[in-house]
Each structure stands twice: as C-alpha cells, then as structure tokens.
Amino acid sequence: MPPLLEIEKMNVFYGQIQAVREVSLQVDQGEIVVVLGNNGAGKTTTLRAVSGLNPPRHGRIVFDGREIQNMPSDQIVSLGITHVPEGRRVFRGLTVLENLELGGFSRRREKDRLKAGLDRVMQLFPRLAERRGQLAGTLSGGEQQMLAIGRSLMAGPRLLMLDEPSLGLAPQFVALIFRVLKEIAAGGTTVLLVEQNARLALNMADRGYVLETGSVKLSGTAAELAGHDEVVKAYLGG
Asked: Fewer Cβ within 10 Å of end Cβ, the chain: N or C?
C-alpha cells in the first residue's frame, strides 16, 4: 500500500533563505510519525509546506496519490489534511462552540457528520463541552490547545498535523493531550507530530525523523531513534 503522505526532495525558502533542503519523508495510513529537531531545523516549515502555507520551490508532496504542492490551503483541507499550528491560534473573540463550528466549515453542508464530529470532540475533551459558550481568549493555555485540536478534528481529517502541542503546557494538560492523540490515532486518523518532548513523542510514535539545519539527519522506528546515541544525547538527556 502506498504511503498516505509522501514528501520527495522538498526545498522550501523564505525569500532567499532556504529553510528546508531536499527533505524526503513518508507517513503511512494509521501511523503516528514524529519529527524531532532543534529550533530552526525546518520542522515547522515542513508542516506549513504540506498544508499549503509555505509551498515548496522544488520537490513533490503527494497525499493519497495526488500531488498537492501547488494546491491552495482550503483545497488541501478539503482533501483531508488539517494543521494545528504552534501557539494554538484560536479565535480569541469567539466562543468555544463558534471556534469549533469554524473548524467544520468545509463540511457545513453535511449536517449529520458535522454534529457527529462536534459530539466526538466534546467526548474527547469534556472540558470544552463545559465551556462551549465561553470566549476562547479566556481559556487557559491547556484548554486553548484542546480547542485548537478539536477545531482541526471538526474538518474530519485523514491526516492530523500538530506543531509542538505540549509547548508551554502544565504536565497534566500534556498527559491529557497525548492520551487523546493516541485515542485519535487508534480511531483511524493518521498523525504527523512535531514535538519538543522527544521522550513522550517517541513513546507514542511508530516512526520518526530527525531534522538538522533543514535536512533529514536520521530516520527509523521510534524504538530505533530512542536508542540512537545522537538522539539520546541531544533530545533525551543522555
């Protein structure tokens, strides 16, 4: 079976500055794949390229057999890819429910599926159900991260991409977020994760990639990376 997502020799620039160099990676259906790397390694840029926010200058991005590197972001979402950005980016002046409804905009004509999606999000994050009428800007950081993930799930993604979901969160929220991500993956949604907490991410993931200065330095199963000397020294405190 071909991979759900395949990136081939991708080069991404910000103006004249090259942020990603010849990156190739793949994500198979049903996997959790983690991307590790220091600040500036190209992790965020890779996700932004897949979601159409920073299209590559060279290379291919193939999702379920279709090239998407030149597609607009809204069309990429409609194909089944959603992106939870670093910093959450919720609509602070809207309520929890309004944020979730905006996340399901691409499915707005599918009333039954939209309601089922909303019910599912409220089941995964009961705290959002309790705060459905509350303004998103008044939520705690952990609650806003729940909302950002829930908003992405409302589009019914086949591939959910997350950029640093544990960043700045209290330990109890981190544990909750990762428990829910495992549940989401077990339900059939493929997950591509950029994460600073390498130990937690590798414990959950199937496979991973390590980026360094915009290029893939290492790749392998999560267990292989967790046992690799360079990963241990750089990311696991060895």
From this structure: N
